[in-house]
Amino acid sequence: MTGNEGNRGTAATGSTGGYIGRFAPSPTGPLHAGSLVAAMASYLDARAHHGQWRVRIEDVDEARTVPGAAESILQTLALLGMQPNGEVIWQSRRGEAYAAAFAHLQAHVYPCGCSRREIADSNAGVVPGGLSAAVSAGMPSVYPGICRHGMPPGRSARAWRLRVPASDAPDELIGFQDRACGWQEQHLADEAGDFVLKRADGFWAYQLAVVVDDAAQGITDVVRGKDLLDSTPRQIYLQRLLGIPTPRYLHTPLVRNAAGEKLSKQTGAAPLDLSRPGLMLRQAAAALGLQVERDPAVPAFWEKAIPLWAARFSR
Ligand SMILES: [Zn+2]
Predict the structure, then answer these.
(1) Distance between Cα 147 and ligand 1 center (Å)
(2) How far is the CA of 115 from the centre of ligand 1 (A)?
(3) Which residue ranges form the domains of the chain, and what is each CATH number?
């Protein structure tokens, strides 16, 4: 499929050979309106760059996994014309890779005996809305460093944290160019703090798993929702410590419905009507700002949508 499209497009050509993108759903339920938009953005970008599109099931938090959800998501993607290149990988089967990375980071890691509430930031990457949502929910966004120089007496290790550089260190400010949002910067010490790599419940943290998996899958381009924008500097910092490449990033704008409301748990979690795939695809495209007329058949939809995306995000 990639080969056939190799010389067809004109908008998205250039030195983009070797593009590998990915969609990484959490199997907490079937694909819904919001996750379809995320899948579509990553798929369109891969196709517009004549690249590969990989799928990874982000079931590292096994407590949130709904049995059968991953299989349902993969079936729905296929029904909507999105076939992954290469093998689908499952985070729940990759504990050895995360343990190896964790061992590599040993010099930067310390045990933390703080309470569950104090470690809520370890979930920030998988809570919709990320850190900002954690803050508005009253959860601490920056770990105050209680165990940084040793746990207080009487505490035992619950989680394991990565020490970020001090606020006056030169490598504390992480910057990157986002293809949609422009130049981004974050002060790790003040805005992220020492973050969890291994959680109190024994699961590997999202931030570590994502970085290890993106490298293992050879991902060159991450296209995902803007709710993960503020996780990106932590992931870049981990990439640097692990000596692995930093991919390019494109965080898609927050999706709004016809009433101008953000696609959220309430509006974005609407189930897909799979008896009308053309309508579902057209609506998801509209949420990305791509106007595809009427409700085309699935192959016709992609033929129309790929050049529209390429015209917007060709670099
Ligand atoms: Zn602590």
Answers:
(1) 4
(2) 8
(3) 2-96+217-234+244-312 (3.40.50.620), 108-206 (3.90.800)
Cα separations in angstroms, 90 against 36, 40, 213, 275, 291:
19, 20, 10, 28, 34
The model's pTM is 0.85
**Tens of pLDDT along 51-98?**
999 999 999 988 899 999 999 999 999 999 999 999 999 999 999 999
Got the DSSP string for 240-300?
HHHT-PPPEEEEEPPPB-TTS-B--HHHHTPBP-TT-HHHHHHHHHHHTT----S---HHH
What distance in angstroms lies between residue 84's CA and the mean position of ligand 1's atoms? 41
Cα of 203 from ligand 1 centre, angstroms: 17
Distance 305 CA to ligand 1 centre (A): 48
Sign of CA dihedral 123, 125, 131, 135: negative
Under the banding of pLDDT at 50, 70 and 90, the label for residue 187 is very high
**CA 246 / ligand 1 centre spacing (Å):** 29
